[in-house]
Write a structure and sequence with these properties.
Elements (H helix, E strand, L loop, with lengths): L1 E2 L5 H6 L5 E2 L5 E4 L2 H7 L6 H16 L5 E5 H8 L3 H11 L4 E2 L3 H13 L7 H11 L5 E3 L12
Parallel strand pairs: 1-2, 3-4, 3-6, 4-5
Helix pairs in contact: 2-5, 6-7
């Protein structure tokens, strides 16, 4: 059997023999910062502008290499604020599967907040960590900065 790492849609349709193995794409949790950076006006802050640029480059060139997922919390946060901006953020996420927030997610989020003595305003941040931690993901994309554990950028 042959291993084809990045098959084209035509290859997938034409290979009905079962002689080729197509590996699954890594799964990446998209946090609220990503659609925010993608849809915001370019920042005058050099660091933030760099994060926006890196995020756009990754989104345009690399997102197809991954199975993207979000949570209802991401959708709720993207829906907040100015209606026009919210619609733009939500449009970026349209069609991306939504991970469920289970009881285990709530328990883990509470444990994160308690063990790190985080303020109440950090509960949503703990939930953002807990949701993808409840499933096997290959990367957590919080912003456009490269991470040592992630070669997405």
């Amino acid at each position: 059997m042959a291993l084809t790492p990045n098959p084209s849609p035509a290859q997938l349709r034409s290979d009905l023999s079962g002689d080729t193995i197509y590996p699954m794409k890594p799964t990446v949790y998209i946090e609220t910062t990503i659609p925010s950076y993608l849809t915001a006006w370019p920042s005058r802050n050099v660091v933030r502008a760099a994060h926006q640029l890196i995020t756009r480059q990754w989104w345009e060139a690399r997102r197809v290499d991954f199975d993207l997922v979000v949570s209802q919390l991401v959708l709720d946060e993207c829906a907040a604020g100015d209606m026009e901006d919210a619609e733009a953020r939500l449009a970026v996420l349209k069609g991306i599967p939504i991970l469920s927030a289970t009881e285990a997610v709530g328990t883990l989020a509470a444990l994160i907040v308690q063990s790190l003595s985080l303020p109440a305003k950090a509960v949503n941040d703990a939930v953002h960590i807990a949701i993808p931690s409840n499933v096997e993901l290959h990367a957590y994309r919080q912003c456009g900065k490269p991470r040592p554990h992630c070669d997405c950028v």
